[in-house]
């Protein structure tokens, strides 16, 4: 049976890191895959090559479309919000748009719910309650996504995450070969994402590692930095394929409707009516 998967993310490039393997796998298996971003990522860190003319948001949306093509995504949508940026200071709203952190939850949820209804989505991918590593736009995606699924009657919501012990083990392994860039907060990953006991779905995506790598590579602006230093995304792309496939060969999700501690599922569509 053909299903429809909608992946909801905060910014262009978020899909590449957390859900691109699952999206590529679903598309390769004949399912319809849709990706939706809340913001255009206009406050993302990038070198002047990409950001000096003030059109970074447009470039990042174009990069998202390139990533989607690599993954086999059938439709790409932007909810129309502006990036809220890192930290506690919220920049003024750009003309005609609102920073996502200021958006009314019901209004934002209805924008997403309209897409879920139109697509008759079977599964919605969002983020765990920590918003992964805690970015406020990611936390809001968690809240807005949950409400949108309620409004649309979407049968299943899966919250993209990583078991803390697994990601820290992988980062320790990678650190033996690579020096992470200055903005990479290693300690933040020791308190981010979800405990292993909370994981309900573990998806093997190793066969789709090439598509995942192409998705990461599409987001060139987010691998850029002034002075030639690597950003985190660029550091990931420098990992040799055998090690890359091992580090990024699985993706994890939490089904908030399921009690933790049961058997971990290996198929995001398993058990749907």
Automatic annotation (TrEMBL):
Entry keyword Ion transport: no
Protein name: PIG-L family deacetylase
Keywords, alphabetical: Zinc
Transmembrane segments: none
Pfam short name (any one): PIG-L
InterPro entries noted in UniProt: GlcNAc_PI_deacetylase-related, LmbE-like_dom_sf
Originating organism: Pedococcus ginsenosidimutans
